[in-house]
């Protein structure tokens, strides 16, 4: 992050996106920025999706144990009416929100708010996890966090689902996910590289 996102918005807001895989420290980074805003006596409000009850209903929490009071909402259109006089608006686990979050975040920034959004950029299949890609494209600042691969210790940017449960959305912790690097990540029992190739393309033939 460069200097001015930690200052008070002057006539215009902006959007900051913190993204990465599971266990990369996204929520911890979000809480840290919001705490610094509070130390500067800036009114702060934080939202999270109702589906996420891993730590508490009324707070966002990081894997390392940091907590911050938050408001649970079901839909993105519930956010604006509850912002009040807050100058800094935090949104955690943005991947669990509906596509309308993009418009909500944009509107808040246009109203002079500093909006900080955290969430997964890829799902367990390695597919871009909306609405994060749209938010990253519209944001003034994007921070990509990396974890550590549990297999080899290399930088990890992928979330490996380790339990046999289907569906894009699965709220979980270490019992359900691991951080993996590109080499050791596999979205299914099939070859992880071959599965992600375009239909009709055969890796062995094309490299042969």
- Biggest sheet: strand arrangement: 5-2-6-7-1-8
Rg from C-alpha positions?
18 Å
- State the order of secondary-structure elements, H for helix, E for strand: EHEEEEEHEHEEEEEHH
The number of strands is 12
For the biggest sheet, the summary is: 6 strands, parallel
CATH architecture classification name of the domain at 4-146? 3-Layer(aba) Sandwich
Structural class: alpha/beta
Helix content: 10-25%
Query: Uncertain spans, ≥5 residues at pLDDT below 50?
Result: 189-208
Distance between the termini: 44 Å
The oligomerization state is single chain
Q: What is the CATH homology-level superfamily of the domain at 4-146?
A: P-loop containing nucleotide triphosphate hydrolases
Classify the beta-strand content into a percent band: 15-25%
CATH C-level class of the domain at 4-146 is Alpha Beta
Tally of alpha and pi helices: 5
Overall form: globular
Q: What's the CATH topology label of the domain at 4-146?
A: Rossmann fold
Mean of all residue-level pLDDT scores? 82
What layout of secondary structure does this protein have?
Layout: E1 14-20, H1 26-39, E2 44-49, E3 59-61, E4 67-69, E5 71-73, E6 88-91, H2 101-110, E7 114-120, H3 132-138, E8 141-145, E9 147-148, E10 155-156, E11 158-161, E12 177-180, H4 192-195, H5 203-207
């Amino acid at each position: 992050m460069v200097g001015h996102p930690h200052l008070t918005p002057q006539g215009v807001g902006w959007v900051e996106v913190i993204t990465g895989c599971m266990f990369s420290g996204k929520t911890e980074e979000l809480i840290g920025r919001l705490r610094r805003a509070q130390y500067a006596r800036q009114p702060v409000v934080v939202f999270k999706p109702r589906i996420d009850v891993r730590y508490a209903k009324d707070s966002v929490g990081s894997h390392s144990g940091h907590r911050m009071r938050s408001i649970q909402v079901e839909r993105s259109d519930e956010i604006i009416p509850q912002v009040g006089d807050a100058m800094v608006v935090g949104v955690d686990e943005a991947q669990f929100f509906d596509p309308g979050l993009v418009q909500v975040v944009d509107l808040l920034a246009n109203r002079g708010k500093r909006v900080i959004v955290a969430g997964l950029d890829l799902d367990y299949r390695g597919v871009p996890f909306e609405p994060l890609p749209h938010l990253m494209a519209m944001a003034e600042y994007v921070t990509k966090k990396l974890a550590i691969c549990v297999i080899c210790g290399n930088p990890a940017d992928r979330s490996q689902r380790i339990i046999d449960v289907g569906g894009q959305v699965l709220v979980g912790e270490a019992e359900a996910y691991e951080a993996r690097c590109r080499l050791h990540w596999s979205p299914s029992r099939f070859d992880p590289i071959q599965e992600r190739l375009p239909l009709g393309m055969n890796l062995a033939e094309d490299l042969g």
